[in-house]
Please model this.
Amino acid sequence: MRTTICLAMAMLALIASGADAAVDWQAELQRCRSLRENVAPLLQAGEGISAVGRSSKSVRRCIWIQRMAVRKKIPGAEAW
Model:
């Protein structure tokens, strides 16, 4: 019981501290660019981005990173 309460408190502290502020945007965008180069052949073969995204957690994360970076106007951000 105590462990559950401690874990819940830690999660709340993380959420409240603004875990989003800890994102290294340039590193994430670079990672997403290299991932996009690897996914491009699938997209050119006719697979939709949503189908590719469902098959890979990293692709879904990159889509989220790209959307947030565009929304926050981070230099180098581009929409997929």
User: Anything to note?
Assistant: DSSP finds four helices and no strands in the chain. Residues 4 and 10 are 10 Å apart (CA to CA). The first helix runs from residue 2 to 16.
